[in-house]
């Protein structure tokens, strides 16, 4: 967190709202195992100068003690809707008026359903109805519950009501299953609450981003792919939206939730990604090719599962279409940004790709090392353009995406004003 805010402080091209000391944040904790993360969240918010009060549902108190939150927040914890004490009998009104922000974290499927339907049978759900401040919700639940149609309908209702959803993350869950549903990490939630762009640098621009891997089928069971998780491309899409752009995201198969306000086009193969990108590129001002597109695909895809018979077998591959080069060769190409993931000679390979494909910019990163690269929460980039370069140090991909978007905006403006 400290490194992130220092990075924001050092940014000259793009300004951020400074955090308001003593900002009043009301944290609602509902009954899920992720309640333990909310203790760290309260600690981080206090560390950033916020005044925090905590409201817990009855089931939340079964997972973590109210005394823990009282110690971390420095304020009494509220659990009861109706209180015999005359001074606190209308606490749902007084707390709602006190708060600058209401954050429900973790938000179970139950509390999401109650809020979306306007039910108010406990203090937290009543507070939601009484709140006039911005409301943030950080869902946490089993992956099957998250994907359930009714849950997604409830999420859509909350978004329509102006609630900001801090999407869950992919990973192993307490029940032993793996998938989307883990509550976002406390540091991520803290960033979303406290740091917002003040002057979008891509206001009104149409931005096209490709993300994730492609899959090239060998037969109905097997395919050739790579280790890309899509995290960087999705983070770039989110950062571009925050910067004021109208974003179209062409995504290969990933286990990620698309950012709000993004037009999502889902594809699987390199050929499908090529078609989707080329259909959109002529109408965009900026294209960021963050996808890890297969360089080769099988010439033949078997209609039946290939059986294990011979000790060796041969698969003949053919080159796929070069999306970046084709976009940059359009009659009126968008500002085109490529990515290069390298295991050696990073700078020379990136510079070669930049010039051979006539790109405006290329962001290169190491893969196969202890930090960063594919399927990691962090990364570092060496960014090149025809007249310069810049190093973006190892950091969380969310923050890294924001830094890269700022740099893209700088170079885009420079190109279009010279």
Search tags:
418 residues, five-stranded parallel sheet, alpha/beta, 2 domains, Rossmann fold, eight-stranded mixed sheet, single chain, globular, 33% helix
Structural features, described:
This protein is α/β, with parallel strands linked by helices and 418 residues long. It has 2 domains: 17-194, Rossmann fold (3-Layer(aba) Sandwich), CATH 3.40.50; 206-296 and 316-415, Rossmann fold (3-Layer(aba) Sandwich), CATH 3.40.50. It is 33% helix and 23% strand. It is built from 14 helices and 19 strands. The chain has helices at residues 2-10, 35-47, 66-73, 91-98, 109-117, 123-130, 143-147, 149-160, 186-194, 231-242, 270-280, 323-328, 346-356, 397-415; strands at 24-29, 51-56, 101-107, 135-139, 164-165, 169-172, 178-182, 206-211, 216-217, 223-224, 246-251, 262-266, 286-289, 296-298, 317-319, 335-342, 361-366, 378-385, 388-396. The strands form 5 sheets. An 8-stranded mixed beta sheet has the order 12-11-8-13-16-17-18-19, with helices on both faces. Helix 2 runs parallel beside helix 3 (66-73) and helix 10 (231-242) crosses helix 14 (397-415). It is globular.
């Amino acid at each position: 967190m400290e490194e992130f805010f220092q990075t924001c402080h050092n940014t000259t091209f793009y300004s951020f709202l400074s955090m308001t000391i003593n900002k009043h944040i009301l944290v609602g904790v509902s009954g899920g195992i992720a309640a333990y993360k909310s203790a760290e969240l309260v600690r981080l918010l206090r560390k950033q100068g916020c005044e925090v009060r905590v409201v817990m549902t009855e089931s939340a108190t079964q997972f973590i003690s109210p005394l823990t939150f009282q110690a971390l927040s420095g304020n009494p914890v509220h659990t009861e809707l109706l209180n015999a004490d005359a001074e606190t009998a209308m606490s749902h009104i007084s707390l709602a008026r006190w708060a600058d922000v209401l954050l429900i974290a973790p938000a179970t499927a139950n509390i999401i359903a109650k809020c979306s339907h306007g039910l108010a049978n406990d203090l937290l759900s009543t507070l939601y109805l009484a709140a006039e401040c911005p409301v943030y919700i950080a869902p946490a639940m089993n992956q099957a519950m998250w994907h359930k149609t009714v849950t997604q309908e409830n999420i859509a209702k909350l978004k329509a009501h102006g609630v900001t959803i801090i999407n869950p993350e992919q990973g192993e869950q307490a029940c032993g299953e793996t998938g989307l549903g883990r509550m976002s990490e406390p540091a991520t939630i803290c960033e979303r609450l406290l740091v917002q762009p003040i002057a979008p640098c891509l206001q009104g621009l149409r931005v096209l981003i490709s993300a994730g891997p492609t899959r090239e089928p060998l037969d109905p069971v097997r395919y050739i792919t790579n280790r890309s998780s899509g995290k960087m491309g999705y983070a770039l899409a989110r950062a571009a939206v925050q910067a004021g752009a109208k974003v179209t995201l062409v995504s290969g198969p990933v286990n990620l939730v698309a950012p709000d306000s993004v037009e999502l086009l889902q594809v699987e193969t390199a050929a499908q990604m090529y078609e989707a990108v080329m259909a959109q590129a002529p109408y965009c001002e900026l294209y960021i090719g963050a996808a890890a597109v297969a360089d080769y695909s099988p010439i033949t895809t078997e209609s039946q599962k290939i059986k294990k018979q011979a000790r060796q077998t041969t698969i003949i591959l053919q080159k796929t279409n070069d999306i970046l080069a084709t976009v940059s060769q359009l009659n009126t190409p968008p500002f085109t940004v490529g990515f290069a993931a390298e295991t050696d000679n990073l700078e020379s390979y990136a510079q070669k790709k930049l010039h051979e494909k006539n790109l405006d910019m290329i962001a290169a990163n190491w893969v196969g090392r202890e930090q960063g690269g594919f399927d990691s929460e962090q990364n570092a980039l060496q960014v090149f353009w025809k007249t310069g370069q810049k190093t973006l140090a190892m950091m969380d991909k969310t923050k890294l995406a924001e830094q890269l978007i700022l740099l893209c905006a700088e170079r885009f403006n420079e190109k279009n004003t010279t």
